[in-house]
Design brief:
6 helices; 63% helix
């Protein structure tokens, strides 16, 4: 997904549909993670495509698969959630706060 995408971009819809198909075919946790993350990210550019709860569901599923990746690093998960566009959407809605709270780096 490119930074300069506009709302209702047909490429965003295509990315979502491709990721949906990939999620059903994928076997490796990293592939399932990337498919669900891509679906959630694509939804930022398709306001009429689904509910915010669906975006949360995709991100929750992405996190579930991320946790299955051998050698995973929570800093990588935080990096994905803190991408400029996604971070603004997540931080602006209380629905996503529990997901963001889980990603805060340990203090100390």
């Amino acid at each position: 997904m490119a930074w300069n995408r506009i709302l209702h971009d047909p490429d965003s819809v295509r990315a979502y549909e491709d990721a949906l198909a990939s999620a059903t075919l994928a076997e490796l946790p990293i592939d399932k993670f990337l498919a669900h993350y891509t679906m959630a990210y694509s939804m930022m550019f398709m306001p009429d495509y689904g509910e915010k709860s669906q975006m949360l569901q995709h991100l929750t599923e992405a996190k579930r698969w991320f946790d299955e990746i051998p050698g995973k690093d929570e800093a990588v998960w935080r990096y994905f959630l803190e991408s400029e566009g996604l971070k603004a959407v997540l931080a602006g809605d209380p629905m996503f706060q529990p997901l963001l709270a889980e990603t805060k780096p340990p203090q100390g």
